[in-house]
C-alpha cells in the first residue's frame, strides 16, 4: 500500500489545452459539479515534483495507458485533493500525473481481470513506474487491498462524471469522432531560416525532444519577408496564449508566441 501522494497540490494559474485531429468533437472546458473552472485551469499547468517536470495533457475517449497502480486510504481521508475536493476513501476516485481532472477512467487489473471506473481528482503518484493511485474503494474493486500494487490498463471512458458505453467508444474510435477537450491553436516559434535544410533539422530536433507529448506538433511554415522566403519552425498545440507562454517558461524556450 502506497501512502506518499502529494494531495495538497499547489494552486496553479493557467490552463494548458492541446489540439487533436480536426475530426474530433469539441468539448468545452468549464466548471463541473466536482471541479471549479479555476481549478481546472490550475491543474493543467506544468509542474515540478522531486526534480521532475510534468506536463498535463488533454486526452480523448478510448485513449489507453499501461503501468503500475497503487492505492491510498485512511491516512489521507478528508484531506484536500488537487481539484479542491476532500478525499473520500470510500468513493471511486484516483490520482494521475497528467490527465485532466474529472476524466473518467476504466482501470483493469491485468493480473486478475478485475476492473472499475474512477474519476481523476488528484495529481500523482510520484513513484517511478506507477501511473495511477486509486482510492481505497477503487483499489478494493481491483484487489489492490490485498496486493498493494498491480499492473493495470487505463482507458479513458468519459469526462465530468459521464461514462460512454463500450459500444459508443468503439464506434467513435472506428469513425475517429472521439470526444476531446479542444480549443484554439497557439504555438511557440522555435526558429526562422532562409534555407529549408536548417528548418528541417530544427523540426527533427524538437520532434525528438517532445516526442512523448503527442498532442504537440512541430511544423514548418513557409512565409515571405522583404522579398525573401523564410521557413519558420513552430511548436503548435496550445489552447491559449497563456498556456503557450507557461510552457515556454517551463521548458526554457525563448521564441515568440504564434497562432494559426
Automatic annotation (TrEMBL):
Residues 180-260 form the SPOR domain. Keywords: Cell wall biogenesis/degradation, Lipoprotein, Lyase, Signal. GO terms for molecular function: lyase activity; peptidoglycan binding. One of its GO terms (biological process) is cell wall organization. PROSITE patterns: PROKAR_LIPOPROTEIN, SPOR. InterPro entries: RlpA (IPR034718), RlpA-like_DPBB (IPR009009), RlpA-like_sf (IPR036908), RplA (IPR012997), SPOR-like_dom (IPR007730), SPOR-like_sf (IPR036680). Gene3D superfamilies: RlpA-like domain, Sporulation related repeat. HAMAP family: RlpA. PANTHER family: ENDOLYTIC PEPTIDOGLYCAN TRANSGLYCOSYLASE RLPA. This is Rare lipoprotein A.
Amino acid at each position: 500500500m502506497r501512502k506518499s501522494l502529494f494531495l495538497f497540490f499547489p494552486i496553479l494559474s493557467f490552463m494548458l489545452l492541446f489540439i487533436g485531429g480536426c475530426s474530433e468533437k469539441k468539448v468545452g472546458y468549464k466548471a463541473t459539479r466536482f471541479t471549479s473552472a479555476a481549478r481546472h485551469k490550475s491543474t493543467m499547468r506544468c509542474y515540478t515534483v522531486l526534480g521532475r517536470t510534468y506536463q498535463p495533457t488533454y486526452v480523448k475517449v478510448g485513449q489507453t495507458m499501461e503501468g503500475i497502480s497503487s492505492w491510498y486510504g485512511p491516512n489521507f481521508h478528508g484531506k484536500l485533493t488537487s481539484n479542491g475536493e476532500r478525499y473520500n476513501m470510500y468513493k471511486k476516485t484516483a490520482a494521475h500525473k497528467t490527465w485532466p481532472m474529472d476524466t473518467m477512467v476504466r482501470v483493469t487489473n491485468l493480473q486478475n481481470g478485475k476492473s472499475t471506473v474512477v474519476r481523476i481528482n488528484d495529481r500523482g503518484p510520484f513513484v517511478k513506474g506507477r501511473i495511477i493511485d486509486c482510492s481505497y474503494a477503487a483499489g478494493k474493486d481491483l484487489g489492490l487491498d490485498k496486493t498493494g500494487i498491480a499492473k493495470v490498463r487505463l482507458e479513458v471512458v468519459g469526462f465530468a462524471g459521464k461514462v460512454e458505453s463500450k459500444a459508443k467508444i468503439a464506434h467513435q474510435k472506428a469513425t475517429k469522432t472521439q470526444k476531446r477537450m479542444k480549443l484554439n491553436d497557439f504555438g511557440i516559434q522555435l526558429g526562422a531560416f532562409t534555407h529549408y535544410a536548417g528548418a528541417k533539422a530544427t523540426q527533427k530536433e524538437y520532434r525528438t525532444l517532445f516526442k512523448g507529448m503527442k498532442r504537440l506538433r512541430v511544423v514548418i511554415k513557409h512565409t515571405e519577408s522583404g522579398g525573401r522566403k523564410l521557413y519558420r519552425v513552430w511548436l503548435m498545440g496550445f489552447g491559449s496564449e497563456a498556456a503557450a507562454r507557461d510552457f515556454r517558461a517551463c521548458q526554457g524556450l525563448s521564441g515568440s508566441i504564434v497562432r494559426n
